[in-house]
DNA sequence: TATGAATGAGTCTTCATTCAT
DNA sequence: AATGAATGAAGACTCATTCAT
């Protein structure tokens, strides 16, 4: 359940989907686009501003991406892939068998892993979140390639723990939902409040309480 | 904790912020705007399409709303007010004192009340959700008038139950967060899956399991 | 076989296809478009230049014509209609019966009538001629609505004269072709040379010789 | 009055105006340009499409032709030269003296010779026809190098026949005009209808009737 | 010689907004 | 109050042309 951890954006910037290497200008275009899209939203972003921030001519953008939407997809598509990376790693089955003795370890790992990911890819994820409702192709792909895979894997993990002990009375999909809700609620609040200087947010404690809450809620503690 | 329950949109349509009554054309403009904004997003919506759907001339919109953004705010601002309506009702203090004997009743009431609200105001809430990140004034107002008030009220409720019994070891803000996470997770999944014909979503059961999960998680059951 | 003779462009400028009246600005747009298209060709004309010459904002063009091509069609389509006007006049059958005793009268009438038309509509016809090869819809319409009708009428006239006397040995379509070739050759040269100050072009004589040539060529004189 | 008959395009492709040989890429550029220009018109053609069809890089075109217009002229200029080739052949004077005993032989030769030429060079002639009206230099050159020469030669031929017999009453320029009109009308219709499978176009007969028509029209038969 | 990334002026088109009626 | 013609700034995108490699 570990990610590659290095900033995969760099990878994204080094190679396009076709495997070719990106020129330096192309990288700057993608970086600027991520910035501007995240800041103003896709529809309200102008290619001219992206070009300006990237320090290239507007035409240069269209040499690399036929349309503005292609540029969006070039950003969002690999993000989806990376989003599920930890769940499709070749070692994943081993995880199922051995790595975690207790469900709270699974929860802790998920939190740590995805928090790191979120921090590194905040802008891209913001774009993803904002644009999915307006682009059916993105929706479909997200449903199929992200939700589908992740939920299936998580349900298998849950099923394994259910086989060993309690929480048998709940469908595994329900367990997954309740677990994810708690984690996402924790991450969301942490994202908003956890970075303020004046914050009274004891991250260590909040995380542990969240995990304990889920464990108790599922009858595991 | 009860809402007015009737479609308050009608109210919105009958009176503008200044207390005046809306003409029929103005109502049609607002209705169309809600539709179009929800469908395409604010930035990608054109006033001309809104006018067309409303069956009015392009200029008419600007007779009632100085700018496109004013039209957005005229939709979104009352939505915020209504969003917190149940928490600011004059009878709210009584709620604190008497209405609910047990925390699971609070949870159940929140779920029922807000689900109904969501169903009636899906489009408006979609707009709210989508646009808040891009409009600082909306953000600020949401923070102050919605989050601030709702959280404060909820924390007072929680504090009351904490005073009476267990879950003392958790800060009330944490309790609120965990409760809301679970509820929103339930509502979100329900919104997506709960309406499919082929769905294997037993709404009654999922809701009760969610409530039981929270109660157990908080050490109340 | 007489045309309405007044400058039908004015009609074109007064009413759009739907029968509505044109505003003054719209008229100026069409006029300028005719000028510019004739001068530079459709593809090399820019809407911004058309707007400038018309003294309107560029956006105004697109209020009246959804696309640049629509503007072209709005010019070209009525031209086709007018091009065949003399052949579809209600009185046309009478023409067949009575008006012309001898084929040379037909030729003379065609020349006079179409020369006048050409002079008044030079630019539009230039556009028609230039653009037809690149727009299949225009081609099709021209084939069907112009060529088809005109040739059929002319063949009927020719057939009538064939029934009365000689030139029986030629198919009527061949007679029509030969007649039109001669007339168009005359008109073409006249158009180029006939207007030069230094020209040694005796119009009256050239026309009569052309008619006589055709008559003799068909064995009628 | 005989042409070289082989596809002179190959010559065009082998040598540029300066007498140098063309590389294979340059040939492919010219070929593609002819195709694209003929298909879409000069103004609507893009150098990038030409490059693509030719299988060369965009920049390569500009290594051989400084501008897009230069490329056009490199195609059109030699076409004009070839167009008049039969009239400037060194043996032309002999033609005047001997080759043709009767004017109908002249007409027949012109038809055969130019039809062949047209078939081989349809695209280039289409370009010529389409672009001449928009390029004054081309116009001027056409007027001077093509029309001027051809008409003068034809008038000399006509004058010779006039000296021998009848048609004395017409100016030789008029005779040329009438002859060419008939021939071009024949070729035009043939070009359009003569290739349809379902056509009722008896080419042999139409050609002979056309010649007979001219001869009779000129009082020669 | 050939390449193809880069350019930036220019294209058609859209859009929020104004204003005379 | 309502209209809708008019605006012009801005948008996405194209294209002939240049130039470092």
TrEMBL record, chains A, B, C, D:
Taxonomic superkingdom: Bacteria
Alphabetical list of SUPFAM superfamilies matching this protein: Homeodomain-like, Tetracyclin repressor-like, C-terminal domain
Matches recorded under InterPro entries: Homeodomain-like_sf (IPR009057), HTH-type_TetR-like_transc_reg (IPR050109), HTH_TetR (IPR001647), Tet_transcr_reg_TetR-rel_C_sf (IPR036271)
Annotated DNA-binding residue span(s): 46-65
Domain HTH tetR-type: 23-83
Annotated keywords: DNA-binding
Gene3D superfamilies, per database record: Tetracycline Repressor, domain 2
Pfam families referenced in this protein's UniProt entry, alphabetically: TetR_N
Name the UniProt record assigns to this protein: TetR family transcriptional regulator
Species of provenance: Paenibacillus glycinis
């Amino acid at each position: 359940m570990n990610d590659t951890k290095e900033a995969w954006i760099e990878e994204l910037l080094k190679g396009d989907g076709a495997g070719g290497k990106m020129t330096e200008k192309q990288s700057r275009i993608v970086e600027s686009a991520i910035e501007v899209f995240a800041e103003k939203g896709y529809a309200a972003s102008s290619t001219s501003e992206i070009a300006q921030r990237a320090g290239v001519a507007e035409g240069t953008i269209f040499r690399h991406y036929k349309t503005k939407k292609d540029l969006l997809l070039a950003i969002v598509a690999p993000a989806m892939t990376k989003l599920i990376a930890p769940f499709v790693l070749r070692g994943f089955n081993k995880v199922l068998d051995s790595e975690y003795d207790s469900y709270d370890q699974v929860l802790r790992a998920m939190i740590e892993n995805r928090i790191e990911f979120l921090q590194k890819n905040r802008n891209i994820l913001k774009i993803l979140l904002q644009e999915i409702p307006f682009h059916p192709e993105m929706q479909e792909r997200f449903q199929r390639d992200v939700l589908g895979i992740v939920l299936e894997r998580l349900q298998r993990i849950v099923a394994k723990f259910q086989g060993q002990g309690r929480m048998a009375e709940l469908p595994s999909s329900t367990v997954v939902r309740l677990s994810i809700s708690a984690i996402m609620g924790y991450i969301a609040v942490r994202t908003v409040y956890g970075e303020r200087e004046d914050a009274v947010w004891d991250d260590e404690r909040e995380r542990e309480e969240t995990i304990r809450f889920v464990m108790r809620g599922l009858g595991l503690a």
